[in-house]
Specification:
By secondary structure, the chain is mainly alpha-helical. The chain contains 27 helices and no strands.
């Protein structure tokens, strides 16, 4: 069963994640992309320029997680700070000062303006020297992500220009005017128009870009928008779906090969984990454990691939939680826990826009669920947890214990193994999944069963799923490329293992054990 995922679907998922990371409404970048394309067409952009504009509008903030922990350590909730910064003229000292005052008051929990002004003045005095390396880091990360996604050197280079301004007062290189690529100038203007419109309304947004004409924005582009203000105002109020944006991708629509899809998921992993020093490499490590454990448990190849990719992306929703919480050295309050518990939900919703990514996202969203229904975010128990979900939960639990966190040092390998075994004894982590993860991590353990569910082999799981889809034996044989006699033998063998004698009984067993959630169409 081959996965069919377009590169643009990975890019769209990243764009939605950056919406959350920037404190913006979900699908803000999708709306900006569509607006930028429409404006580019009316401005006479070439095909290459439109293609660049499309990707750059979606990925403008894809480097935003770089060194976020530094910003959070100074300003607290970086999501609120980014929301405030997004609509101001950052070169305007008054607007910038007011924004920093509000951030300082949040950190100081409502301290008066007068009390925070000395600290704000100090921040202003070092703001540029501090901002340059942070912004440069954002740009370098964005460039590397674009190259890894196969978008080429032009798109990659352009992504380093998104903090530049027409008047040369931007960062990190102080580029000005025509030195900034046309797709970048247009995507920046389109995104700011969307933000300003959401904050103040379309007419006020147009007034603001008129005021910033020739300083922040290309004057030709602003004049064009003001000339066509009726059409632009209408466009600002449209809320296109993800499918709409995917459908208008300029040029060829690239379908990813299996190894390219893995790399796309690794990009998501690295984008996520760079948010804090102690999580860097976390998702890759979880994926390595999960992949090895899945193979040890004889999951079908398609299930192992879904499991591995789910492990790469499992923490994507972290970007929607303020970094100030992730780096907090003390226990969460009840309200903070409620926010943190949302991250698996965000992961699932970000990836829900495409069928294949949705299947990956569903498994990923279960990484904090437990067999006794004590986990989150759904609080489901054993009947709703597939073998892949059980392995992912075990792999994530073990790897997290082996890594440092702000409130504790990393556990030794043996201590992490002991902690996982305790979860297994308590009935929270599946014992077979846990044993497979421990073996993958290099621990000596007693021999484990080869399959989490009734000793079914990978082939027998494939057969069971086809039975549940109503396929007769001859069609099962055709789907799996085996003889009808061999398929019949598999049917009888699995019936014996799960102790049923009818198709209906087999279907009920599959439903009870959550084995149908990973079925994919050929």
């Amino acid at each position: 069963m081959t996965s069919v995922v377009r590169r643009a679907e990975i890019i769209a998922a990243l764009s939605i994640a950056t919406d959350l990371a920037m404190g913006q409404p979900v699908e803000f970048a999708l709306r900006s992309c569509l607006l930028a394309l429409r404006l580019g067409e009316t401005l006479g952009f070439t095909g290459d320029e439109l293609r660049e504009t499309y990707y750059e509008a979606l990925l403008r903030y894809v480097g935003c997680n770089a060194e976020t922990y530094i910003v959070a350590a100074v300003f607290g909730d970086e999501l609120e700070l980014r929301r405030d910064l997004a609509v101001i003229d950052r070169a305007n000292v008054i607007e910038r000062t007011n924004t920093l005052v509000r951030a300082a008051q949040r950190v100081a929990e409502g301290t008066s303006v007068l009390a925070v002004i000395p600290g704000v003045l100090k921040l202003l005095s070092v703001a540029r020297s501090t901002s340059i390396p942070i912004i440069a880091g954002h740009c370098e990360v964005a460039e590397r992500i674009a190259l890894r996604l196969g978008l080429g050197p032009v798109v990659s280079a352009n992504l380093s220009q998104f903090y530049e301004r027409w008047d040369g007062r931007g960062l990190p290189r102080g580029l000005s005017g025509e030195a900034i690529a046309r797709p970048v100038r247009l995507a920046t203007l389109a995104q700011d128009l969307i933000l300003l419109s959401e904050t103040y309304g379309p007419e006020h947004a147009l007034a603001v870009i008129k005021k910033r004409r020739g300083t922040v924005y290309d004057p030709q582009f602003v004049n064009h928008i003001l000339t066509h203000r009726g059409d632009v105002t209408s466009d600002l109020q449209k809320r296109p779906s993800c499918d709409t944006v995917l459908a208008v991708e300029p040029g060829p629509q690239t379908v990813l090969a299996e190894d390219e899809l893995d790399e796309g998921c690794r990009v998501i992993a690295d984008f996520t984990d760079i948010k804090a020093p102690f999580t860097i490499g976390h998702s890759r490590a979880v994926a390595a454990l999960a992949d090895a454990a899945g193979r040890a448990c004889a999951l079908p190849d398609a299930d192992v691939a879904t499991l591995r990719r789910a492990a790469y992306v499992h923490d994507l929703g972290d970007v929607g939680i303020p970094t100030a919480l992730w780096i907090k050295p003390s226990a969460f309050t009840e309200s903070e826990w409620e926010r943190v518990r949302l991250h698996p939900y965000y992961t699932e919703r970000i990836l829900a826009r495409s069928k294949t990514l949705a299947a990956i996202g569903h498994v990923a969203s279960l990484h904090h669920e437990r067999l006794n229904a004590s986990g989150y975010h759904r609080g489901v128990g054993a009947p709703d947890l597939t073998p892949a979900a059980r392995i992912l939960a075990a792999a994530e639990a073990y790897q997290t214990k082996a890594e440092p966190r702000p409130h504790r040092p990393a556990l030794s390998a043996d201590a992490a193994a002991s902690a996982l075994k305790q979860e297994m004894r308590a009935g929270r982590i599946d014992s077979e999944a846990g044993a497979a993860v421990l073996a993958a991590a290099g621990h000596r353990i007693p021999p484990i069963r080869r399959q989490l569910i009734a000793d079914l082999t990978g082939r027998e799981l494939d057969v069971l799923r086809l039975i549940a889809r109503g396929q007769p034996t001859r069609d099962i044989a055709a789907a799996l490329g085996i003889s009808e006699k061999t398929a019949g033998n598999h049917v009888q063998n699995l019936y014996g293992k799960i102790e049923v004698s009818t198709r209906a009984g087999a279907v009920m067993f599959a439903v009870e054990h959550g084995l149908l959630n990973t079925v994919e169409d050929n």
